[in-house]
């Protein structure tokens, strides 16, 4: 009985849906995290009577055919790149992007990574790095005798040094944006990687060419809404239960057919 296999695809799809939702909920406190959404597609159909087929020599046609689908599958887990809330941290090297764009990070293998997580620190040489020690591009070195660091909305980094009344400019932060930012590959550690679907990065500075502005002393929160995720979770659970009931019903029908004499 096909109903058993059709319902099983529904259960498998909702299982994947629950996994996506659980990952969103698990990352509610992850800086710069972007929630995902499971998207579904129906599977191939078997046609028992095609619409438009002839029913007589007079040219009459079937207005509606008979098609039975094969179930459902998860076609994509698209990432929702909407803006998250911005919260103050009172740390000089914490940065939030308000609008479009990603920070550019130099990866250990020589490639570039992209992130919305603006939690930056200084390493032993004074270089601005991520919490994993990955260097920002271009490299910004903060002198050891810097008493305070100022980062403008357009990414200009300045520092006040001991004995100087005027700030010293240390560099300009770069940002990247993509034609299809949802096509970026998530590689963990709050990092994304360029893919053929995302297109090549467009490098620029904050506040220019469609890039968002920077906020010093702030961090962007995850764009996960707890109420929405719980509603989606309940919906997925009920869909899973209904598919399980279809399997149970199909099993009872098969049992009744097997007992016929």
Task: Describe the protein.
- The protein is an alpha+beta fold and 261 residues long.
- It folds into 2 domains: 2-80 and 224-258, no CATH class; 86-220, no CATH class.
- 22% of the residues lie in helices and 33% in strands.
- The protein has 2 helices and 20 strands.
- The protein has helices at 2-26, 226-258, and strands at residues 36-42, 45-49, 66-69, 72-79, 86-88, 95-98, 102-106, 112-115, 120-122, 128-130, 135-136, 146-151, 156-161, 168-172, 175-177, 185-188, 191-193, 202-204, 213-216, 218-220.
- Strands 7, 8, 11, 15 and 18 form a 5-stranded antiparallel sheet that branches. A 3-stranded antiparallel sheet has the order 12-13-14, with no helix packed on it. Strands 1-4 form a two-stranded antiparallel sheet.
- Strand 13 and strand 14 (168-172) form a beta hairpin.
- Helix 1 (2-26) packs antiparallel against helix 2 (226-258).
- It is elongated.
- The mean pLDDT is 92.
- Its main location: other.
- It comes from Pelagibacterium luteolum.
